[in-house]
Amino acid sequence: MFTDPKIVNLHDLSQRAYITFYYSGKRYRFYNGKAIGINCMPNNCDTLAARERLLKQLVRGYIKALLSGWTPEEVKTPVQKQPLIQLLNQVAQDIEGGSYSSVYRRDILKVVESFSDFLVAEDRKGALPDEIVTADIERFLKRFSSSGTYYQNKRRTLGAVFSRLLKQGYCKTNPVLETTKRRAKAVLHQAYTPEQLAPVLQYLKENFPHLYLCALLMYGTLLRPHREIRLLKRKHFDEHFTCFSLDGKENKSGRIRSLPIPDFVRQELVERCIGDLLPDENIFTRCLEPFNECYFNTMWSRAKTKMLDLGLLQPKQTLYSFRHAASVNVFTRTQNLKLLQQLLGHSNLNTSLIYLRSIGAIQVESSMMPEL
């Protein structure tokens, strides 16, 4: 009925610490022991060590109260009115301390910083959450009007921030929901033809060896380059490199993923002596630390310029085109959309269909139409 209370201590005496837990699916947060009748005030401490000690005491007190039948629903503490800019700072701290993806964390922190600067520029540092209206959000979003995709990304991220504040009771509505939407134009990752694939891979092998291995893994295993391939370690492969396994935290789908490895990928891994690495060593850097998130993007930008000059690829062909080419290859040979969905690691079949529709892989013939 309730989760174990957890301590949220930011190790900064200027920021309040608290304990948090869920009761009947609802999240509760307590800064002291008043609700259960104990004198425990962690945020009055002068040192971090003393505050940590009282926070642990506070956790024990709330666990004992919960087991004795006390419910947080009995506590009717009004939400304190705090300036929005202060609440935005709290959201940023919660996101930094949470188990979120690096991309989500980056986007939230950037939009929080930008919106805080916006409030300062408009001389509204003391504005309360409910004082922000849709017109204010519209003015802020105009800063990101260079493209529909850029605008929608900022709109969606800011909406997530206000949604958190709404759930915590700091505002009554989400002002972002009524703002203008813009059409985001999808980027077409044109798949490589079989004739193009070999020359492109050969060029990468000779000039960009790390990018070559990344492309080979994308095509052979359909893994994603930045969140999955870049972070691959020796332990993700079996002894003879015949299959790989990723747990839910190591791939975008959030589910355990285990697939066989084609011979052409296995041969490259063996030639690179990946088997000599320690279990936690990265297969690209050959040490514990992986390349940074932008590494493959940077390498691809350099390689693409040169390959375009050589006529090896088309302008709309990208690093992700290796994954699209693999999707076309699998579907052409199997005609099995469910299998393709599993290989791509998609939770929604419609997402897998986009890989085929965008490149015209699904061809409908008259013999496929219904018969009476």
Outline the fold blueprint.
Layout: E1 6-8, E2 18-23, E3 26-30, H1 48-67, H2 84-97, H3 102-121, H4 134-141, H5 148-167, H6 194-207, H7 209-221, E4 243-246, E5 257-260, H8 263-271, H9 295-310, H10 321-334, H11 337-344, H12 349-357
Antiparallel strand pairs: 1-2, 2-3, 4-5
CATH fold-level assignment of the largest domain:
hpI Integrase, Chain A
Trace the largest sheet across and list its strands. 1-2-3
How far apart are the first and last residues' alpha carbons, in Å? Answer: 56 Å
Mean pLDDT over the residues = 87
Main sheet summary = 3 strands, antiparallel
Estimated radius of gyration = 26 Å
Order of helices and strands: EEEHHHHHHHEEHHHHH
Estimate nothing, just give the exact number of structural domains.
Answer: 3
Q: What is the CATH H-level superfamily of the largest domain?
A: Intergrase catalytic core
What would you say the CATH architecture of the largest domain is?
Answer: Orthogonal Bundle
Uncertain ranges: none
Total count of strands: 5
- Count of helices? 12
What percent strand?
A: 5-15%
Global shape: globular
